[in-house]
Amino acid sequence: MLTALILAPAVAAIVIALIPSKRREVHLPLGIALSIVPLGLAGYLFWVFEPLPGYQHTIDAVWYEPWGIGWTLGVDGISLPMVVLTALLIPIALGASTSITKRTKEFVVFTLLLEAGMLGAFLALDLFLFFVFFEAILIPMYFIIGIWGGERRIYASVKFFIYTALGSALMLAAIIGLAFSYSSEFGSTSFALADLMEVTLDSGTERWFFAAFALAFAIKVPLFPLHTWLPDAHVEAPTAGSVLLAAVLLKLGTYGLLRFNLALFPEASVDAVPIMGVIAVIGIIYGAVVAIVQPDLKKLVAYSSVSHLGFIVLGTFALTSGGLQGAVIQNVNHGLTTGALFLLVGMLYDRRHTKAIADFGGLQKVMPVFAGFFLFMTFASIGLPGLNGFVGEFLVLVGSYATLPVLAIIASFGVVLAAIYLLWAYERVFTGEPDKEENKVLHDLSPREIGLLAPLAILVLVIGLYPAVLLDKIGPSTEAVLDHIESSTDYVTPEPGRLDNVFTAGGDS
Amino acid sequence: MQTPDVNWLAIGPDLALALAAAIILLVEVQWKPLTRTLGFIAAGGLFVASGLAVVQWFFAVDAASAGSFSELSAFSGMILMDGYAIFGRFALLVVTALGVGSGWQFFKDLGRRGAEGLALVLLATTGFSLMVSSNNLIMLFLGLEVGSIALYVLAGLTRQDKKADEAAIKYFLMGSFASAIFVYGVALLYAGTRQLTILGIGDFLSSFIVGSPGVILIGIGLVVVGLGFKVSAAPFHTWAPDVYEGAPAGIVGYLAGVAKIAGFAALARILLTAVDDFAWSFLPVIAAIAVLSMLLGSIMALVQSDVRRMLAYSGVAHAGFILTGVAGFSADGILFYLAVYAVQLVGAFAVVAMVSGSSGSSSDIGLYRGLSRRSPVLAGSLTVLLLGMAGLPLTSGFVAKFGVFADAWFNGYEWLVVVAVIASVIAFAFYLRIIVIMYMEDDEAEVIAVPGTVRWVLGIAVVATLIWGILPGTLLNIVADALPL
Known about the structure:
Strand order of the largest sheet of chain A: 1-2
Strand order of the largest sheet of chain B: 1-2
Number of helices of chain B: 20
Largest sheet of chain B: 2 strands, antiparallel
Oligomer: heterodimer
Radius of gyration of chain B: 21 Å
Strand content of chain A: under 5%
Mean pLDDT of chain B: 85
Structural class of chain B: mainly alpha
Order of helices and strands of chain A: HHEEHHHHHHHHHHHHHHHHHHHH
Shape of chain B: globular
Structural class of chain A: mainly alpha
Distance between the termini of chain B: 32 Å
Order of helices and strands of chain B: HHEEHHHHHHHHHHHHHHHHHH
Largest interface: A-B, 34 and 30 residues
Largest sheet of chain A: 2 strands, antiparallel
Mean pLDDT of chain A: 84
Helix content of chain A: over 70%
Shape of chain A: globular
Number of strands of chain B: 2
Low-confidence stretches of chain A: 505-509
């Protein structure tokens, strides 16, 4: 099942690669059609997923016995939302790429390979396997930015590659080190997450390993001050690249912190709470403040990502059930809303070939549907109650108030700042009278574009109104993470943090 | 006096190669045939040698599982037929076949002297094949010289090209210097232990307490330096960029690949079996050479504007990575790394030869502009091979790096692994530079037609890189069978 999920896009990529380049009209439609297959599988996975702790649909095949590496896959409440999100966004990103006319075939192939890599990274439960996917993702993304990106695409793509590779290189050293500790303690070699969680490390080593993992993921997230590759990559990437980068790739960082750092190094994680919390809050405020002054719409959304992802990290290291659930659901929320915002910016760019805020004004009159979608996603991103962003940010703030009250209060200003930069941008782009001639002739969204945005908008609304649909499945897994930390350290989750939160269906506890 | 029994199987592959070389020269003198005919003879020689190597392999596996290790030693221990030797020999044969295939245009362009080129290639392989399979340091030295001298001549075979002459002279001078150092080290080892066989030295050192280890230590040091030259580890690498740049493009991949395989196979055999009781004393030195090679190779490669010089410096870095495996003191990581790297190297130089022309000497990075348009086959293959050399996952290069890093960490060289992973990130930058030029910049230069032999070579190299990256067990199991030494 999970193997099929990873292989489906890879096989689709091979199929498309075998179609001659001359038949350029078939590549994109066929790519979209084939990317429905993993989406169907992911949807089915979501449907049959039982709200229990632990991994489901696990596969444990030996890859190379003497090294103890395995094709170990499994899905739990933390990875499930990401898998569904990835599978959902690929057809949408491809559908938004009709403006790509150069080397369409390669573009579709790289996008599908990217999907296979991302799904693999979310499903892998073997550190070697995870690293393979984590690093292999760089290759297609590098080409997507480098070939189909904007003017400074080469600079951006190389910067993206080297930055992320540097982080993951040290993680590789730490993975080897962990496996060594395991083999000296248990006498056999293994890279399986479940095995490596058993290792007892002395606290010095554990901190070093924690730092190596955290660095890799912090670059990916990206956390301040390691974020400088992100605006470049986002601004230069084609629309589909930006969407996938923001919605899924960055989530590998937050997902990795939650999945690997907390599970493998519980003691160091507890010790690192203040540091990670402060870094996350700096990211929230810094990203928001920088976003306010951006003259470029795409860059503004990029910096808003830095700010929003800070919330996820804050929630993760709050080490409360509210914080963790909020982090996981915010992973999805940010993927939906920021993905949609990048889509919208891309649609605007396709029409006007500029992303500068100053070039626009009064678009509301010319493109009412477009403006409506933009405003809707803006509100979702700000965290208006009833939409998804509210659920995630509320949980994160409530959850982190229990353990990090000062940081939670500072972080809440991030929400206010988000309202400022997003609404101000909306005001400058959409309100007033269209004063530029070019802007008066822009046509509104086509049915295709509405079709791309509608699923995202619906999910934003569903999660906002009935978050239990996700939280029920997330909850048991995040509780399991906390239980593991409590059982391996003397950390005790503070009482309010353990309260079953307000959003869970039934609310009977 | 009784002559020792001739173990035909043990020398079969080498005999086949040497015979093929002799036949090529004789046929050329007598009938002046087409180069193609000579190529068939060379291919036949390689084919027979490979077949015999496979036979040896099964023989060795049988004998090893029966515990009769003495059957694996022939000519009073001059030649060994253990798995390690056969693996190294087979890797050499594969690299030779790929090298001749990718450089075929070069041999054709040599005209009447193509026979010399082919014969020299076969002789070089014979020499190196003896070198990896010898248990005797004198024999090992002879193999090294037979191989090296053939390579010096090959480097200067075009004769008209000044750059190639320079490369050949440089290679010859530095190479003979290195050989002299190596043989002096052998002499000191003999003086210290009164043994010439590798296993003998090992036995001696493990059964006696050495009164004056100084002589032996200096001997080890000189052997390491001598072989360090051959494998272009820093700081003994200075000849490599000039030779890679100057020698005919069609032959560089072969030249670099076989020298690396043979040099490292011999180095690992000596260090891991003969003098392993002295590991405490020379492993830090090996680690230091590894660090220097990795950092210097990666950083110097960044600033090159010639792809061949870049690959030469990347070769220095790779020597450092392999030495990391030596510091890890485990032969399987080294063997795997050697095999995959040599295949990638030959494949990459096949592309270089196509882009610069078989005997052309310029391989400026500008020539690769827009290569993805001009020849998708060349650009695609080179991309896979470069990603493999960079050590990206899903390629054999990643598995190889992972293997040597893990060995080093498990042997207590954590800091070396940290340096190595950082060096490999630096290395990403210059591999990416070539890919950027090929894919992300456009150029209207003419389309490059790729002949069939080169397509085959690239196909094999690319498939090997991917297969061993995705299913490393296919090669790692063989490597595991090849041990113990």
